[in-house]
Amino acid sequence: MNLNEIKQLIDIVNSSDFQETIIEEGNFKIILRRSSSTAAPQTNPLQAASAPSEAPLALQLVVKAEPVSTLIDSRSPIVGTFYQSSSPDSPPFVAVNDIIKKGDVLCIIEAMKLMNEIEAEVSGTIVEILVENGQAVEYDQPLFRIKP
What we know:
Elements: H1 3-14, E1 20-25, E2 28-34, E3 46-47, E4 57-63, E5 72-75, E6 80-83, E7 99-100, E8 105-111, E9 114-119, E10 124-129, E11 136-137, E12 142-147
Antiparallel strand pairs: 1-2, 2-4, 3-4, 5-12, 6-8, 6-11, 7-10, 8-9, 10-12
């Protein structure tokens, strides 16, 4: 949506009885709202220059963060230390661009001297490894991004 289209929307709303209009297109959302006073609303929207009316029309542009395609985060089920392999001399369980199947071991998280194998919940391709070997991880912290 370009600036001219936004100005046209402002004109349409100004000539109507609407107090608020929400328009969503693609990855952004526009909220057109009449304010009850001449002061800018608390959300600090842009004040739109428009035709005279009883109450000025406030324009709030909200860009929604769309998920990066359909990537799924594999998250830590426990608090502990993240390890990419079973021993320092072993190769990592997975690397970026590896194709995995549901149930494949992705890493080990050590918690209270116990080594817990973390398995893939979905099949797909490893797109990103979000933690480093030996790093402490929290419960529900994203570890991997997987493209199903």
